[in-house]
Design brief:
Blueprint lengths: L8 H11 L1 H20 L1 H10 L3 H28 L7 H25 L7
Helix pairs in contact: 2-3, 2-4, 4-5
């Protein structure tokens, strides 16, 4: 059974999706650490923000972004299979999920900018 997931492309992509949880967990821990630093005050939080600009952190984020996007995309592709007796085409359900996610992300960015928590250069 060793290497069973390497024998078929479907299983390879499945295992890559399952392995993406490592990046998602690491990113969640980074955000939790930032929350902890925020609770400690402005100085520690600024130090945490500065650490996000290090080459190692930037490399991690550059690698994590496509992995997390792939993970999210596979969840959107599962959505039509979870809806019983739907009359909508699968592509419309997936597109609706992606559009809703993009709209929520845009609304969050606008809200953060509006309340002055992030400044657009």
């Amino acid at each position: 059974m060793a290497g069973w997931w390497k024998r078929h492309p479907y299983y390879l992509w499945y295992m890559l999706r399952e392995a993406s949880c490592v990046f998602i967990t690491a990113y969640a821990l980074i955000l939790l650490w930032g929350l902890r630093r925020l609770a400690q005050g402005e100085g520690p939080f600024e130090d945490w923000l500065e650490s996000l600009g290090t080459p190692g952190s930037l490399a991690f984020h550059a690698l994590a972004l496509p992995v997390v996007l792939y993970h999210a995309w596979t969840w959107f592709k599962v959505m039509p299979k979870t809806l019983p007796d739907t009359r909508l085409p699968a592509a419309a359900i997936v597109a609706g999920g992606v559009a809703a996610s993009a709209a929520c992300s845009a609304a969050l960015l606008v809200a953060v900018w509006w309340f002055g928590l992030w400044s657009v250069p």
